């Protein structure tokens, strides 16, 4: 079979469009501009529309769906771990999608298409409600050094306050501390601030609980630190700036340097949990897990 140069050119153009759309969708989702649930809705609509379409030209089908398929496969590959829990429903999901495309080409069977769409809805619900929250939250949990007393070990770390004074965390001995390390142009950090504010408001009347925000002095200067302190004054009880030398020591101490970094410290000064990252769709799950930990520490005798 011979292909004309025109057909090859059209095929190449379509292929580039596929990759371009895939890259665009991936970047939009990763940057937070495209919600995962929107992706799911588009996939579901695509199932039904393309499984029942009377069009013989399937180019539009592939042009629309291939980027989503590639996005999911790429995401699964990047996040792969043994027994990766989200890939199982996704595999079934895309088997259904493949069947739907075959049906759209051959029979336009509405009943089968509706059945496949229903299966997809169930799988997406299971993924979004049960599997994804547990997986993505647990993925952010970091190992904690044994017998490490964070307050005692960092007693010589002096942070800068908004009034340009210096302060050590030893001031908050015998208190449960929620500490957030962040910087001003970190998108996940900014998106997490409403959650931190909600946590702070829950324990506003507790004198033995303090919410502290520490800004990375490598990435923000005094001017931006003061601006953030004013803009988000209701989020943190205390806002601090760690200079370049200090933030390097903190990263070495914690063994991580990816933001946002969440620390929960008990009244004796020991780190109870270190959590990295933030997924906005999982806010309720984050809130439940975090407040359960804080409640247990506050109720300790």
Automatic annotation (TrEMBL):
Membrane-traversing stretches: 7-28, 34-53, 60-80, 86-105, 112-137
Keyword list, A-Z: Membrane, Transmembrane, Transmembrane helix
GO molecular function: oxidoreductase activity
UniProt xrefs under SUPFAM superfamilies: Thioredoxin-like
InterPro entries, per the entry: Redoxin (IPR013740), Thioredoxin-like_sf (IPR036249), Thioredoxin_domain (IPR013766), Thioredoxin_ResA/DsbE_sf (IPR050553)
Domain (Thioredoxin): residue spans on this chain: 137-299
Gene3D superfamilies, per the entry: Glutaredoxin (3.40.30.10)
Protein name: TlpA family protein disulfide reductase
Species annotation: Pedobacter hiemivivus
